[in-house]
């Protein structure tokens, strides 16, 4: 539900197509149309983090994958502190859950079919 636009664009680019930006275009985006009222919700906090981590851990070359995950881990505490100050602990909790679920799914899928 989140980061699927990036995932799709990356697949198209990797398939050899060129991607273009149309600078004078206008895009209407209904914030929260699929997940709530436009505010960060439990749903959007979870799925945005899960989608981001799944994309980073599955699509990028090894070096970019490692540096991106490290960057995410280093910068999240700053955002988490901000959310705690605003009294939005649910955002932190759901982003941590999304992060861990994406990594656990990646690990589980990498073991699928292997005999241990």
Strand content is under 5%
Main structural class: mainly alpha
- Number of E-type strands: 0
Helix content: 55-70%
| Rounded radius of gyration (Å) | 17 Å
Structure characterization notes:
With 116 residues, the chain is an all-alpha fold. It has a domain at 38-116. The chain has helices at 4-14, 42-59, 62-85, 89-111. The termini are far apart. The mean pLDDT is 84.
How would you briefly describe this protein structure?
By secondary structure, the chain is mainly α.
SSE topology sketch:
Blueprint: H1 4-14, H2 42-59, H3 62-85, H4 89-111
Comma- or semicolon-separated keywords:
4 helices; mainly alpha; 116 residues; single chain; globular
